[in-house]
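Q: What does the assembly look like in three dimensions?
Context provided by user:
Components: two
Sequences:
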Amino acid sequence: MTSVRDSVEDIEIPLLLEALYQRYHYDFRHYAGASIKRRLLQARAQLGFSSISAMQDSLLHNPDTVPRLLNYLTVQVSEMFRDPSYYRALREKVLPHLRTYPSLKVWIAGCSNGEELYSLAILFREEGLDQRTLFYATDINPAALQAAEAGVYPLEQIQKFTANHQKSGAKSSLSDYYTADYGRAVFDKTLRSRVVFSDHSLVTDAVFAEMHLISCRNVLIYFDRDLQDRALGLFKDSLARKGFLGLGSKESLRFSAHAASFSDFVSEDRIYQRREP
Amino acid sequence: MTDQAIRAVVIGASAGGVQALLQILPPLPATYPLPVLIVVHVPPDRDNALVSLFQARCQIQVREAEDKEPVLPGVVYFAPSDYHLLVETDGTLSLSSDELVNHSRPSIDVLLESSADAFGSELVGVILTGANDDGARGLQAVVEAGGVAIVEDPAEAYASAMPAASLRASPSAKAMKVAAIASYVSSLGTS
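A: Here is the predicted structure of the complete assembly.
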């Protein structure tokens, strides 16, 4: 016996996602349903709507509701140098290959508030590759892109960020890259002097540019299988030959239609290399 | 209590949970006809040692849950450390790195609430020992969906706070000692 309330929500949620897509072209229709439901129920409660349908009504008739809802639908919590072994593998195994190119392009897909971007910018600076690298940091949420561009994090996170950075094989101190200010860590703006911030959707947008490294961590887990395949196809087509793809520690290409286009490069850290076509 | 069809067993455990699970999981036969989905609170930075610990002691298959894999009978799935584990309505698993819920990732509430959505009344939810109140909302969702709700007897539990919180939130849940929970879960395979 399923309760009546639940079945109404299960009708309302796809309708709201369809409305969000048709009116504003934000496409969450192929996101994994269980997480989307949690997030929408949380948004409904915290934004004070009596039902998902009431939230849909506001969404359609009051554009101010869109950014507020997006902050729930795309909310991402991350940390700098999350999974230090991933960054150590990039440093020790991937960067020696990238070093052979005169210029480099790196795409942080789904950059959220920028923690992964600044981690990579610091890594590339430590390894002396920052001056020949152009970073593309993309997300669908304008508020997240603004936060990424600002590069300001609560000071209480710095201890964790610093510990992660050290475990990644750091060649400098994280404190070289930020100044503490009223409980916030403000990251050095020269870290983003070679960063292009851009609105880009893995769901609806096309190939981005010819990349040497794409880092997309803990984004694909929010997609259903079909959407994962679309995004991975986009990465495949956006990578230079023998370019690298880094995923989150629990994401893999194993079940993907594009698995054959990549080879394992550092399998324990989910780093893949584009096979030659 | 076993007169309804059951498609899955979900278990949440925290402090002292490994000892309790050591009584419940090893007796399950390799041919156990249900999936068993488990969240145990473990420190986020530690490699999840649960899988190898239980693999060595169980006949039933024990794995770490992978994103988008189908839920299969006869398999115990542990949530990976630092990820929430959810069940989709199509019977596949999802992982998420959303914010902590009840100071925990993985969170028992997240697994139980999504499982209640996916399996409805054909679900057994079990809350074992723990020192927080994660799982209380999730078990409520199991009850509301018409599933079977079981809580380790707080008087017996290594840490009583978590089962006690679940019992307060779901007074209709059945409090049982671990030995009784173990035989009940085993018996689901023989009916």
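Follow-up: DSSP finds nine helices and ten strands in chain A.
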